[in-house]
Design goal:
307 residues, alpha/beta, two-stranded antiparallel sheet
Length: 307
C-alpha cells in the first residue's frame, strides 16, 4: 500500500509521460531491450548477439571517411516524375515525404573523401529514402561517382542498402542497371579499383548491377542479399530453400561475395584493401585511357550519358 501513499508524502507517482519516448529499442536478432545511445556508440550493433541495425548514409560517412575529408557532390540533382505516376498514391507526394523525413533529395549520396589516406569517390544508398530504391537520379549519381573516380584517379567505394528498382519510374529505373554497370566497366578499363559494401538488405536491380561488380564485394554479417525474395524463389522452383539462404554467410560460403566483415572492423578492412588495390593503379594526374571506338562514344574517354 506504500505506493498509494506517495502523494501523502509529497511524492508524485511516475507516469508514462515522465519517460521520454525513443530511449530504448528491441533487438530484432535476440529480443534484448537496448539503450539507443549505447547502441549508437556501438555503431548500431547489438552487443549481445551482433545484430547489425541499419545506419544512415551520414553515419557511414562518419564511420568510413577520414575526418574533415568529405566533400559532397551532385547534391543539386533531384528526382522528377517522368511518368506522372499516381496509383495508388502520388509519386511526387511520396518524394516530398521522403525528402522531409531524411533531409536528402534522393536515396543516393555521393562525394569525394579519403579513407585511411587513400583518395576515394564514394557513393551510398540510404534505405530510409523509399527503401534505397534505384531511380534515374540514383543511377546518374552512381555513374557520376565512377566518372569522377576516373577523372581524378581515385578508387570507387559504394555502400549499398536497397530494395531494388523504383517502380514509379518504370523502365527508366531498370535502365539504370545497364548505365551503372557500363560506368563500372569503364572504371575497370582504367585499372582503378571498385570496392562494393552490401548492407542489409541489398536486393533487386541494385544487386543485379553495380553492387555485385566490385573487385572486392564485402557484406555486413546477416545481410540479406539477392535479386528476388526467398518466398518468390521458393514458389517459383517449388522447393524448400536451405537455411540461411541469401544471407551474407551463405553467399560467402558459395562464392558470391568475398568477405563478411563486422561493422566495427569495416573501416580497418577497407583501409587495407584500398591501399593494396591502389598500389598498382595509375597515379593521380595520369590522363584517362581512351576507350575503344564503339564503347559508348566516339573514341573519347567517357561514353555519352544515357537516361
Amino acid at each position: 500500500m506504500s505506493w498509494f501513499k506517495r502523494k501523502d508524502k509529497g511524492l508524485e507517482p511516475v507516469t508514462r509521460r515522465d519517460v521520454p519516448d525513443g530511449l530504448w529499442i528491441k533487438c530484432e536478432g535476440c529480443g534484448e531491450i537496448l539503450y539507443r545511445k549505447e547502441l549508437r556508440r556501438n555503431l548500431s550493433v547489438c552487443a549481445k548477439c551482433g545484430y547489425h541495425f541499419r545506419m544512415t548514409s551520414a553515419e557511414y560517412i562518419g564511420l568510413l571517411a577520414d575526418e574533415g575529408s568529405w566533400r559532397e557532390t551532385d547534391r543539386e540533382l533531384a528526382p522528377a516524375d517522368p511518368l506522372s505516376f499516381s496509383e495508388p498514391s502520388s509519386y511526387r507526394e511520396k518524394l516530398r515525404e521522403a525528402q522531409k523525413k531524411t533531409g536528402l533529395r534522393e536515396a543516393a549520396v555521393t562525394g569525394l573523401c579519403e579513407v585511411g589516406g587513400a583518395p576515394v569517390s564514394m557513393g551510398l544508398l540510404d534505405f530510409r529514402f523509399m527503401g534505397g530504391s534505384m531511380a534515374s537520379v540514383v543511377g546518374e549519381k552512381i555513374a557520376r561517382a565512377a566518372r569522377r573516380a576516373i577523372e581524378e584517379r581515385r578508387s570507387l567505394l559504394v555502400v549499398s542498402g536497397s530494395g531494388g528498382a523504383r517502380m514509379q519510374e518504370g523502365v527508366l529505373s531498370l535502365m539504370q542497371m545497364a548505365k551503372t554497370s557500363a560506368a563500372i566497366a569503364c572504371l575497370g578499363e582504367e585499372g582503378l579499383p571498385f570496392v562494393s559494401v552490401l548492407t542489409n538488405p541489398t536486393t533487386g536491380g541494385v544487386t543485379a548491377s553495380f553492387a555485385s561488380l566490385g573487385d572486392v564485394n564485402i557484406a555486413e554479417p546477416g545481410a540479406l542479399i539477392g535479386f528476388a525474395g526467398p518466398r518468390v524463389i521458393a514458389q517459383t522452383i517449388n522447393q524448400e530453400l536451405p537455411a540461411g539462404f541469401q544471407r551474407a554467410e551463405f553467399l560467402l560460403e558459395h562464392g558470391m561475395i568475398d568477405l563478411v566483415v563486422p561493422r566495427p572492423e569495416l573501416r580497418t578492412t577497407l583501409v587495407r584493401l584500398l591501399r593494396f588495390l591502389s598500389a598498382d593503379a595509375p597515379p593521380r594526374g595520369t590522363a584517362p585511357i581512351p576507350l575503344r571506338r564503339g564503347a559508348g562514344g566516339e573514341g573519347g574517354a567517357w561514353p555519352r550519358e544515357a537516361v
